[in-house]
Fold:
Amino acid sequence: MVHPRLPVDMGRSPHRAGRRLRARRIARYSRLVLSPAVDNLVAQLTRLPGIGTRTAQRLAFHILAAPADEANAIGHAIADVKARVRPCRECGNLTEEELCGVCIDPRRDRTVICVVEQPVDVLSLERTHEYRGLYHVLGGALSPLDGVEPGDLRIERLLDRVGADGVEEVVLATNPTMTGEATAAYLADRLRARVAADG
Amino acid sequence: MVHPRLPVDMGRSPHRAGRRLRARRIARYSRLVLSPAVDNLVAQLTRLPGIGTRTAQRLAFHILAAPADEANAIGHAIADVKARVRPCRECGNLTEEELCGVCIDPRRDRTVICVVEQPVDVLSLERTHEYRGLYHVLGGALSPLDGVEPGDLRIERLLDRVGADGVEEVVLATNPTMTGEATAAYLADRLRARVAADG
Structure:
């Protein structure tokens, strides 16, 4: 089969030009309809995970229609959380006090520490109602290409806890991703070296 | 066929009791893990349309992990929108000025008014790039059962505009719901009465 040849300056370019014009037209109309403040709110909302432009516009119109105090309650809640919530001094989980709810709970088994990447992982594990030990939140996973080195994670604090607090077992529950697995392997090496040094 | 009879105090109650216990256990654990400020943020986010508890928790953890200025930008954007955005004096569409972008646009056809329920409907219609006339945003639909009477919508202002501005055509584009259709029928009657009185 022989494909028909197109002159060099034809092909898809007229179609593309049409699409470019259409995009410019959409931008012009949107500017007419939405105000700068609404545009900014939509832009801020689309920075949230899983929120596209359409969802952000829907949320923005809901916020516009809501009473001012109800709408501003979201902003106050965000400011409140950023001001009051901090990492637990012991395990790195989220808390408003020095120590988090798991660390101060006398019913938890203090001989086991479960190592996770983020505070959200603590929530996931707590939902199972199976684990009764303590946690250690690393704050991420090792990823040299992204510039995350061992010194950027709460690893020294983990080794201190394992050495000092009568811990008998460490569960490595990093994510099943390449960086998560690499982090677990690195931690296993460090912990084995420490056990060998202690014994 | 004869269905087997169950003793009165059996049936599904043991199972139900189990579920109730489980619900209480979940509540206890959640309180331990999330701080009051995070709980409040999750509660505020679940008030948004289409955002359930899980999504709200995911958003809350993203906000917690984000830099403070990026997180607070959402709150500032909400406050900004509530402070600056108001209804267009002419049509009820959203604007930061006296008149909205459609009403001040000299290229729009001022002989046609399209009547819609909410500002979001203006956005939907503008996305089609077909309509070149003006709008009139009612601010809802008639619904006597919910206490929405003609006086609660921007109906008098619509009749004034139709009477004064050389309007030749009114397009009734309320929603295809029971209240939307009832509103369109009511407006058609009012507009016909006005045309008959003028003629």
